[in-house]
């Protein structure tokens, strides 16, 4: 005689109040706020380089590419808000969950991986201007190569997680995927590498800055803005905590924690990378400009011709109208040490009297310092040109 199996336990009813809970506004508000600031800083940086310094560098183009990746990430957050972002996972319809998983995949490879990689490359290219030291340059190039290598590895982690690739977001097709624990380990390794490079990029230039001849206020400004990179380190640590718990989290969509902290990390990093570039724009307001006391060693034109070369032989240094580094200031008309000389009929060149080589000399705004191997007695000749 067989007995009937016990009836299945009915599912626990969902509390309507709990099911109605939503973090959508919080997620979009915080990420949108940081993203808006990042866009603003990049816009100010591009404006400063194009219209104030009048010279765009490789690092500027790369950081623009990085912020475009951030735009893609913010767009994905916006799309997800219509398909369950910030809602409890069990309350989301199957077709919406499919869209959530698929969009999260592209957000990871575009915003989280490519965006962060481009940002770090941009920072490395910017910091290369601080010093001509061999060890310093080689260290930065090693970091740039390292960032590129582990970012490619991170891409491969996503592309080869499931076969076929669609299996990452569509489990109905029963894909072959490697264990989730291994996927989490790869993610933690990538986060650890990001934290390591963030610390390096924030710490390495500090020793160089303290050796530059500049006002203490200017030096402190540079150290502070470069130290903003430590905030991205903190966000990376927070993200790693959620990565460790990823496999056990059954309500991922309610906070979308990993993508949330990754996105904040990217946008805060963009803000930190752009802040030093704004000095020509805000230098006078913050009283970190030294335009009233230009003396010492300015960046020398690398293509001396005719009258320009003759002027430099008389003890002057040319202030290139297209300053190579965004932390340089331009000479101001009427400055006691600035002299204008008309060269042909095409343009005016600003020259500056070169003072002595004592401890008091040296440009406070100079980042790429000229080679000081030329020693000896220097004669200074006053030149007055009238038009």
From TrEMBL:
- Membrane topology classification: Multi-pass membrane protein
The Rhodopsin domain is annotated at 44-282
Bilayer-crossing regions: 25-48, 60-79, 105-128, 140-161, 192-212, 219-238
Q: Does the keyword 4Fe-4S apply?
A: no
Pfam families on file: Fung_rhodopsin (PF20684)
- Keywords from the named record: Membrane, Transmembrane, Transmembrane helix
User: Which spans does this entry mark as compositional bias, Polar residues?
Assistant: 374-387
Which residue intervals make up region (Disordered)? Answer: 297-387
Q: Name one GO cellular component term.
A: membrane
Q: Where in the cell is it found?
A: Membrane
Family affiliation: Belongs to the SAT4 family.
Per its record, how is this protein called by name?
A: Integral membrane protein
Native organism is Colletotrichum chrysophilum
